[in-house]
Amino acid sequence: MSQYDPAQGKGYGWRMRLGMLLPSSNPVAEPELIRFLPDGVSLHTTRLKLAGSTREDLLGMTEGVEQAVKLLTDAGVDRLVFNCTAVSTFDPAMGEALRERMEFTGGKPATSTSDAIVAALAALAPRKVALVTPYIDAVVERETGFLEHFGYEVVHKVGLGLAEGKAMASVEPGQWYREGMACAGTGADLVFLSCTAIRVFDVIAGLERDLGLPVLTSNQAMLWWCLRGAGLQDRIPALGGLLA
Length: 244
Description:
Shape: globular
Mean pLDDT: 96
CATH topology of the largest domain: Rossmann fold
Radius of gyration: 17 Å
Order of helices and strands: EHEHHEHHEHEHEHHEHEH
Distance between the termini: 19 Å
CATH class of the largest domain: Alpha Beta
Strand content: 15-25%
Number of strands: 8
Strand order of the largest sheet: 2-1-3-4
Helix content: 40-55%
């Protein structure tokens, strides 16, 4: 298949046009995802203001959802995704609330990063999770509570104390590999590298191999969930067992 199939009448994205709502300070998600999109799948993005990690910052990102969805529907997207881990896991009900707002406004199937995380964890079926993040303590604790709400024991957790997307993006992939390897011996059944603004796609497969455990990341889970939700069964082994 090629990226352009005139017979389909849609040009780029003739299998799926994915519309993504992204934090304004995230420079990672688009280039990571675009590298691995299957043929015939295109990514279309708009941004919502998020430049910090306070409670007010995170909840403030949700205020412009409807306008952002309207902009994406102008591009003829087929599915919508709110792609921010810290916001969508703010509480266990946030993902559903965001999904309902997007679907009501856009008239298209919608999801959030938290929906994808829950679905991916169900597919991989761990009992104990090691949570590795760039976040400040308050965000780590909220995400821990989110995972525990869905029945997972968090046996190890790491937060690098970073509050802003550009700082999170500046962490080298090798550091995430080392943080993942440090989860050995914690009793975890799975390592979750959490955040859509961290550069981890290039270390997933190697970390799974060397650690001997499944590795979940926010953008990986989101891509998997959106593809499968659209009925697309493409395999992307470089992104680990979830997509292999």
